[in-house]
Design brief:
The structure is a single chain. The protein is of the alpha+beta class and about 180 residues long. The protein has two domains: about 1-20 and about 155-184, no CATH class; about 20-140, Immunoglobulin-like, CATH 2.60.40. The chain has three helices and twelve strands, in the order αββββββββββαββα. Strands 2, 4, 5, 7, 8, 9 and 10 form a seven-stranded mixed β-sheet that branches. Strands 1-3-6 form a three-stranded antiparallel β-sheet, with no helix packed on it. β7 and β8 (about 110-115) form a beta hairpin. Keywords: Membrane, Signal, Transmembrane, Transmembrane helix.
Length: about 180
C-alpha cells in the first residue's frame, strides 16, 4: 500500500512538472521592449496544460506600478506568441524591472508563469540583436509550486527515443524524496 501511495504522489509530481508554462521573451538583459513600438511575448505553449490565460505587466519599482496591470484579458495558449501594440501599454515609462505574468483568467493571483525581469527602452531605441534568442530560463509556477512556496527555474530532460519529458529540478528533488532516494 505504501508503494502505491508513493507512486500516485510521484505521478502527480511528474505530470505537474511536465506541464510547465515558460515565458521565453521578453526577459533578461538581452530581450527588452521598445516604448511606442510593437513588441512580442513568446512562450512554450506546447508543454502547457493551460488553454488560455490573462497577460499582465508587473514591475519591481512600485513608483511605476503598484500592482500588476492586465493588458490582455484572455490569451489563447496555442498561439505561442502575441504582438503587443503601443496602444495596449501607453502609461508605462522606460525603465528596468518589468516582468510579464501569465495568470488564471478568473483569478489573477493564480500565477502560471513569470518572465525574467526586462527593460522597456525609450522610444526610438534599437530592438535586441537578431542573435538574441529566448533562453527558456524564466521561472514557472504552478498550483503545486505555489502551495509549497517554491518555484523552479532549471530543468532536466530525459529521453527514451519516443519523446522527451522535461522535469524542473525542484520536481526531481521531490521525486527523490517521495521514493526515498538521495539526490547528488
Amino acid at each position: 500500500m505504501k508503494f502505491s501511495t508513493a507512486f500516485a504522489t510521484l505521478a502527480a509530481i511528474v505530470s505537474g512538472a511536465a506541464a510547465q508554462l515558460t515565458i521565453l521573451s521578453p526577459g533578461g538583459p538581452d530581450l527588452w521592449w521598445v516604448d511606442g513600438e510593437v513588441n512580442d511575448v513568446t512562450w512554450t505553449c506546447n508543454s502547457s496544460p493551460y488553454q488560455n490565460f490573462t497577460v499582465l505587466l508587473g514591475s519591481s519599482n512600485t513608483s511605476i506600478l503598484t500592482s500588476n496591470y492586465a493588458f490582455v484579458a484572455e490569451q489563447p495558449n496555442y498561439q505561442c506568441s502575441v504582438e503587443i501594440y503601443s496602444t495596449q501599454l501607453t502609461k508605462f515609462p522606460p525603465a528596468d524591472g518589468y516582468t510579464i505574468i501569465f495568470a488564471n483568467i478568473l483569478n489573477s493571483s493564480d500565477i502560471y508563469a513569470t518572465s525574467q525581469p526586462f527593460e522597456i527602452k525609450a522610444e526610438g531605441a534599437q530592438y535586441p540583436a537578431s542573435s538574441a534568442t529566448p533562453t527558456g530560463t524564466a521561472t514557472a509556477t504552478s498550483s503545486a509550486a505555489s502551495a509549497s512556496g517554491s518555484s523552479s527555474s532549471g530543468s532536466s530532460t530525459q529521453s527514451n527515443g519516443a519523446g522527451a519529458l522535461a522535469v524542473p529540478m525542484g520536481g526531481l528533488a521531490m521525486v527523490g524524496a517521495v521514493l526515498g532516494l538521495a539526490m547528488a
